[in-house]
Amino acid sequence: MAEEIRYLNPTKADVKRKKYCRFKKAGIKYVDYKDAEFLKKFLNEQGKILPRRLTGTSLKFQRKVGQAVKRARHLALLPFVTDMLK
Amino acid sequence: MLNHYETVFIITPVLSESQVKETVKKFRDFVTSNGGEIVHEDDWGLRKLAYPIQKKTTGFYHLIEFKSEGEFIKKLDIQYRRDERIIRFLTFRMDKHAVEYAEKRRSNK
Predict the structure, then answer these.
(1) In which region does residue A51 sit, left (phi positive, over 0), alpha (psi from -120 to 50) or beta (all else)?
(2) Which of A1, A79, A65 is nearest to A33 (CA)?
(3) ipTM topping 0.90
């Protein structure tokens, strides 16, 4: 009986575009915790921080973004959990 | 060596305008009297909070950017905790990128 090929994870045919770190490309050096609009790009609908594999940011800037988001949450600029439709 | 700090605090909305001004003035004088040097100040006024703090949904935000010694921050922290009009505060030390970012924002604003 023919062993049909089963892939471990679904082949991501469409995701071919190379992900890039927007901070390196734009030359941004500091992630400001005060401007919530910019930080919202890194949160999903529930207000959780998006992982690097989706946003493609480098480790150094992912940590800065994480720290900035936590500071913004402390100052109630960003919610801890919400179902905001972005 | 003077470090560069930035502190943001939220004042409870039930106060009258004069009391808010007086609170802000109290902290501004506290910074200057203890050898701090205020670089920049910013009042965001009444803003909606993302989640209720102490059953209140709005608050007066105020930002003070200053230079001061390291151990002054502990004193400032105690002052914040003691004052019950302040419902939330955050002080953080700015590295060189943050300082440069702040300058740039002030210049083009």
Answers:
(1) beta
(2) A65
(3) no
Which tokens go with A63?
A: 């940590």
pTM of the model: 0.83
Cα–Cα distances (Å) from B58 to A70, A85, B49, B54, in that order, read: 19, 21, 5, 10
DSSP states of B14-76 = TS-HHHHHHHHHHHHHHHHHTT-EEEEEEEEEEEEEEEEETTEEEEEEEEEEEEE-STHHHHH
Nearest C-alpha of chain B: how many angstroms from A29?
A: 6
Nearest CA in chain A to B95: A30
Among all residues of chain B, which has the CA nearest to that of A81? B51
Q: What is the pLDDT of residues B37-93, one digit of tens each?
A: 999 999 988 999 999 999 999 999 999 999 998 889 999 999 999 998 999 999 999
Contact yes or no for B88 and A75 at CB 8 A: yes
The one-letter code for the residue type at B28 is: R
State the amino acid at position A20 in one-letter form: Y
Q: Which candidate from B10, B97, B100 shows the least CB-CB separation from A75?
A: B10
